[in-house]
Amino acid sequence: QVQLVESGGGLVQAGGSLRLSCVASGSxxxxxxxxxxxxxxxxQRELVAVVTSGGSTNYGDSVKGRFIISRDNAKKTVALQMxxxxxxxxxVYYCNAQVRGWNLRTSAYWGQGTQVTVSS
Length: 120
Description:
By secondary structure, this protein is mainly beta. The chain is about 0% helix and about 60% strand.
């Protein structure tokens, strides 16, 4: 009953910028943490950034100082501003949300992913 839809992926040259967006919809009472993960071919999925409902943030070491995560609770969206992109940022990026249902139980949901490709 809960869906996460990402947008904003694409092809960009090294040093460029992209902005990813994710919107949550469905049977939602509230959303706790929202974040972004990524997975490159042959590698494990890794944390990119996460933001709590109160606005606290956490970033993976490889993106600190380059990426910024933000959210809009009223719109149920989370965004990732990616600057100074590097070829090693190339991956499929997935939106994740910890959603409280109307029964007040929390479950994790994932988007389908959006491809980000950074050329040298």
